[in-house]
Amino acid sequence: MKTDRRTPIEIDKTLFQKMGYELIDKIAEFINTIDKKTVTTSKSNLEISELIGNSPLPENGSSPDELLARTTDILMENSLLNGHPKFMGYITSSPTPIGALADLLAATINPNVGAQILSPVATEIEKQTIQWLAEFIGVSPNYGGILVSGGNMANFTGFLAARTAKAPKEIKEKGISNTSNQLTVYCSQTTHTWIEKAVVLFGLGTDSIRWIPADDQNKMNINLLEKTIKEDLEKGCTPMIIAGTAGDVSTGAVDNLKEIATISKKYDIWFHIDGAYGVPAAVVPKYKSLFDGIEEADSIALDPHKWLYSPLEAGCTLVKNPQHLIDTFSSHPEYYNFSNTDHNYYEFGLQNSRGFRALKVWLALKQIGKNGYIQMINEDIDLAKMLFDKSDNHSELEAVSHSLSIATFRYVPEENLSDEYLNKLNEELLNSLQVGGELFVSNAVIKNKYCLRACIVNFRTSEKDIEEMIEIIVREGKKLYKSI
Ligand SMILES: Cc1ncc(COP(=O)(O)O)c(C=O)c1O
368-483 in CATH: which number? Predict the structure, then answer.
């Protein structure tokens, strides 16, 4: 019998070590010099596709060391670097260095964290991570939950638990079209697009959303929330979920969670919080009161890949009574022999086979500790405030908003320019900044003003970066003002 099967997939130990050492050396250098690089590539998409090679599917393989070395160089030299200190776009953090090593280790062991028997250590690590995240944001450690790929999935998971808990019980068998009363959904008009995806995907339809107007601080108007619920009840609707937001995507506003909790209780509606971005700030003692009411939430979405600086992808859903997740997602096919284990993650969410994303989150929590996070999150907020104040004091900038670690502002070269012109100017300015490679911000439209928006979930950004950023923006703004 042959015992020496040779496959094109294995890499022998010596070569693997050589490749690994070279890769780690390059990664260490990359991280160490990231602030000297441009934030993004100047190459066109066509040039990049040529760089990776427009070849058909390889018929035969090639040597792994050359392949890895070349791919590493292409990626390091041509990517957008969200680990750069002047990256402040959207809500994508600089990734924890330990997360890079964690992903390598997780892929090496490759546990399938859908079932405990397939992932004995990884399941315990994920359980502990979930408990720590609950503790981190200040809710009861009895919350349970699951790690998912990001904010959309974390919110969907909470939404589905709400549907199981609050829709008529026969919905599981008969489907949503057999419910006589329309299920309705309440959220502020500033809510992230996940909610539209959720109502489309999970059968409620976009007409089920009641977009509650926000006040001038971008928080949900609670009087209008209650009025809308009453009107719906009179029409015979079944209010299912109120989704409050803790850190809205455009401005970082945190809804009045305490008041939403009171209304949810009064009308027996599921209280969900989309804290994908902002809820980690509840760990900072001086901001904790902003999140009062959080401990009443039936479900909470929070993304380690945003303000816990985890490498993509890592989101999390926490549920006050995790049985709602099991009621929603559990099934027991005959091909699963998992009955001797007590915590099988496939019963808590949408996936069955699941990767070990908990490792990077867990290792970072252990390496950095709660106090390390308090320091970094607090500093991010201070930097956003500094940016707001500097814009406010600058004769050619208008500061528009500041909340948590998001500041919005716009370039206003002189007085008496129309909003229409300023919107065009700032949009063009954003486009030129985004390809320029010196910094990366994104945009927000606030009360019809097209603004530049910096979201600092970046432990590498410093005061010097904020000073330099203002200079760059004003310099580029001046150039454009002359030309359009
Ligand atoms: C408040 C909020 N909710 C949900 C999401 C969606 O998160 P993801 O892009 O990780 O799916 C975002 C993304 O920025 C967000 O800011």
Answer: 3.90.1150.170
Amino acid at position 35, single letter: D
Q: Are strands 299-302 and 270-274 parallel, antiparallel or unpaired?
A: parallel
pLDDT at 181: 86
Single-letter residue type at 22: E
Q: What is the SS3 assignment for 325?
A: helix
- Residue 302: strand pairing partners: 316
If you count them, how many residues does the chain have?
484
Pocket test for ligand 1, best of 159, 277, 279, 291 (most atoms within 8 A of CB): 277
Question: From ligand 1's centre to the CA of 245, what distance in Å?
Answer: 11
Task: Calculate the CA 7 to chain-centre distance.
Answer: 39
Q: Which of 482, 398, 442, 459 is nearest to 93 (CA)?
A: 459
Among candidates 103, 90, 94, which has minimal Cα distance to 35?
A: 94
Q: How far is CA 293 from CA 26, 41, 268, 279, 312, in A?
A: 46, 44, 16, 12, 29
The pLDDT tens digits of the residues spanning 234-273 come to 999 999 999 999 999 999 999 999 999 999 999 999 999 9
450 burial (CB, 10 Å; 0-12 / 13-18 / 19+) is buried
Residue nearest to atom 9 of ligand 1 (CA): 151
- Strand partners for 195: none
With beta carbons less than 8 A apart as the criterion, state whether 203 and 176 touch.
yes
Amino acid at 197: K
Residue-range domain boundaries for the chain: 111-355, 368-483
Task: Please determine, looking at this structure, whether the domain spanning 111-355 carries the CATH number 3.55.10.10.
Answer: no
Residues contacting 147, CB < 8 A, separation 6+: 126, 129, 130, 304, 314, 315, 316, 357, 358, 361
- Give the pLDDT of residue 177: 79
In this structure, what token pair is assigned to residue 447?
A: 């009360």
Q: Find where tokens 């944001």 sit.
A: 137
How many Å apart are CA 112 and CA 345, to the nearest integer? 10
- Measured from the CA of 313, which atom of ligand 1 is nearest? 10
Nearest to 220, CA basis, from 183, 177, 264, 167? 264
Q: For the chain, which residues score pLDDT lower than 50?
A: none
Handedness of CA 469, 435, 424, 212 (dihedral sign): negative
As a whole number of angstroms, the distance between CA 238 and CA 80 comes to: 46
**d(CA 441, ligand 1 centre) in Å:** 17
Query: Fold identical between 111-355 and 368-483?
Result: no
pLDDT of the residue at 98: 98
Q: Are 192 and 248 in contact (CB under 8 A)?
A: yes
- Using alpha carbons, select from 137, 191, 461 the residue that is nearest to residue 316: 137
Helix then strand count (H, E) for the chain reads 15, 11
Model pLDDT, residue 280: 98
For position 175, what pLDDT does the model report? 87
CA 312 vs. chain centroid, Å, equals 9
